[in-house]
Specification:
Blueprint (H helix, E strand, L loop, with lengths): L2 H8 L6 E3 L4 E7 L3 H18 L4 E5 L2 E6 L9 H13 L3
Antiparallel strand pairs: 1-2, 2-4, 3-4
Helix pairs in contact: 2-3
Length: 93
């Protein structure tokens, strides 16, 4: 996927940003404490397993960062954006 198409697709998923020169997307979700961040990470993991499309996760006190990049193509695929939208719907308002 080219940078122009990635730019159009990222606009449809609020809160997410392009990284790695347009070869990945990321979003940091904030929580009140570590336990809430871990619960969210667990939900993301269950979704990823069900969909067969796995992000990289970083979890710490009050945050969970989710990154998507299709490793087999060393860049972004439409599925990365679909999964990002689904992950965004898991986050509390």
């Amino acid at each position: 996927m080219g940078a122009e198409e990635a730019g159009r697709m990222i606009a449809a998923i609020p809160g997410w940003t392009l990284e790695e020169e347009g070869k990945g997307i990321r979003r940091e979700f904030r929580f009140r404490n570590f336990a809430e961040a871990m619960r969210f990470a667990w939900q993301v993991g269950e979704l990823a397993e069900a969909e067969g499309h796995h992000p990289d996760l970083s979890v710490g006190w009050g945050y969970c960062t989710v990154r998507f990049r299709t490793h087999s193509i060393k860049g972004l695929h439409e599925n990365d954006f679909i999964m990002a939208a689904k992950v965004g719907r898991l986050a509390p308002p």
